[in-house]
Amino acid sequence: xxxxxxxxxxxxxxxxxxxxGVYENKEARxxxxxxxxxxxxxxxxxxxxxxxVDLPDRIFVPVRAYGKISDQPIESKYVYENETPDIVALTxxxxxxxxxxxxxxxxxxxxxxxxxxSPQEISKFLIGDTNKLKAVVxxxxxxIKQGVITLSGAEGATDASGIGGGFSxxxxxxxxxxxxIVSLESLLQIVKDKAAARAGYDQARVAxxxxxxxxx
Amino acid sequence: MGVKKRISGCVAVANGVKLADxxxxxxxxxxxxxxxxxxxxxxxADGELDAEFIHGEGEHAQLSxxxxxxxxGARAFTGSSGVGVTYAMEVYSPISGERLxxxxxxxxxxxxxxxDFGSEHTDALCTRDQGWxxxxxxxxxxxxxxxxxxxRIGEDPRVLLPQYSCQDGYFVSHxxxxxxxxxxxxxxxxxxxxxxxxxLDVRRPQIIGAQIEPAMGPxxxxxxxxxxxxxxxxxxxxxxxxxxxxxxxxDPFVEEYMTDDAEAxxxxxxxxxxxxxxxxxxxxxxxxxxxxVRLRVFRPYPTQEVRLALSKFKAVGVVDNSANFGIAGSSxxxxxxxxxxxxxxxxxxxxxGFVGGLGGEMITHDEFYRMFAKLxxxxxxxxxxxxxxxxxxxx
Lengths: 216, 395
Known about the structure:
The complex is a heterodimer. Chain A is α/β, with parallel strands linked by helices.
């Protein structure tokens, strides 16, 4: 007996940000918090959290932060991993190698990478369900703003250093440009460094997956 | 009115502790409850909360510190998870025996093994017979509200007992939820200052926890028994007052969800109740007569309320999120206690146990779906094949 259809939530969008443990935890968390809080301003139902099992106190191990955004109250709120992301973002480029970043992505998903490289160059390294991607986006978010390294805000506590003051701002800006998941104006109301977030939005390079030879 | 924020269960509890204006806090780190203490440490450091923040050298020390602090008349707070909860086991009974109404937050974590820091109620349930009050919250909002409510109940002169305010680790403690943080003036109205009537004071020496003769044991235990039993009335009153002041109301003991005309129901405590509700709602859309009953207070166990709530169903599936190896019925403590509550009804309500979510796994929508399917079968046939099922291996 299966119930998979019964529990579908059609209006639900999932965003997963991959990062390197400890050094980039905060930036990954800030991307999902900034985007979901911006969506909340737009009247959406939202949820943001960090993967509890990824051992975030281990330096450089791949860790994930998640967001959910929906037109309806979120019913899968205790499904503790994003199983079918619509948006995947990486806080640094080496995560494209050896990490299943595209695992479970839904058709039409968008990948956003913090890198100096072009979408064309990044797409060469992608493995997995690349045919489900709609676009690959790159932005030199770290070039726009340095990352903030802090343990403040770890383990669900309040981040006293604020949201979106590091490279998460420009990375979130690129996510917004590529997906339209929220408006840039809403994002700018949330992030600490508004100029950096706007620069990320402006400088993001969006490449259609078909043009990269990735689509089906 | 309060402010609305999206915060974790850990931060919600820390806000409750701050609003309760506690005097002494004792910490020792262990996931997942750690976030409560890091938030409180920040509040103290930033001058938001005027409290003594003491870092203990372990959980046994944590409980000893708040034991002393409470005896000195301080409103005291501590907390732990998993093996931290069991490491402090020796100190729980002396605190309730001395009738000191301090509070301990428990964000559940598995014991070792599996020791994977996932949530299981096993840790807190190990402490259930220590003479403390105990209950589970299923959302960050409820975790904040219960922090205030437990102090109010425990410090009532008719009760004077310590309280375990429990929440599921990760699901409640770490996933941000919308919380209305109440106004300090409202909290002042609801929660009067803690008054200890036999304060430990060097000018008036007294002995606490002295060696006693066996003959002094029965009256001492009977008084503690009466205090726990008597808390029922105070729990009801506190919930009514809370609703009046804050405008948020909870059924004090059991929350019923879609139980009208239901033939089968899931009986459960903690975060997974929220998933069970989703499943019940979706099944209702398909015409199934199902509901969910959530237990909010585990000690004192609300025998009458549970009997009343569960007696109207043909079949009840009792979900245990704890490992109780070798227990009567081979399921868990939620099942044995529910069956005791239902015993006088004879065989009217068929009960079956479901052990799920161990190791911190979520109890999935599909698992609740399978549980409801089993309950439907039991309600139809009027008999159970076995006492309990361990998910996902046996159902």
